[in-house]
Amino acid sequence: YFDGGFVGNTKIELDDGRSINIQDIEVNDVLRFGERILGKVEIDATNIKVQKYIIDNKEFICGPNNFMNDEIYYVSTMQLEGKNITEGKPIKLYHLITDKHTIMINGVLFSDYDGCLEHLLNNIHINMNSHKFII
Fold first, then answer.
1. 101-123 pLDDT tens trace
2. What are phi and psi of 129, to 5 degrees?
3. CA distances from 118 to 19, 66, 74, 123 (A)
4. How far is CA 40 from the centre of its chain?
5. CA–CA gap between residue 69 and residue 4 (Å, rounded)
6. Can you tell me the distance from the alpha carbon of 38 to that of 106, in angstroms, rounded to the nearest whole number?
7. pTM of this structure
8. Which of the four, 58, 69, 87, 124, has the lowest number of CB atoms within 10 Å?
């Protein structure tokens, strides 16, 4: 219920200047801004709403994710209006765990997999403590 990720052909830039698909990233790869890959997560997308989002005039096809906006705080894609991907919907999504808890994709800073989960779980905890359950 809390998983999110990117389609397999999402391009990720490595520190050596190459751009490769997120599905081809390996543990210990280093991304352009020095993020070391600690883990790659493959997610069953069968029950995940995969959408096309436009963020900073760039297209992303993904499940739920958090990204940094211009005001320098994280925003969830669940707060954006996206276009549902139904035809050709991927059966797998991919996400990364990094030592910096962030991933830069096409000029947009996203939380890594753990960061997305922690943000969601923290919001649930806060809302449960105030007797509201909002996701």
1. 889 999 988 888 887 666 555 55
2. -70, -25
3. 28, 11, 12, 8
4. 12
5. 18
6. 20
7. 0.79
8. 87
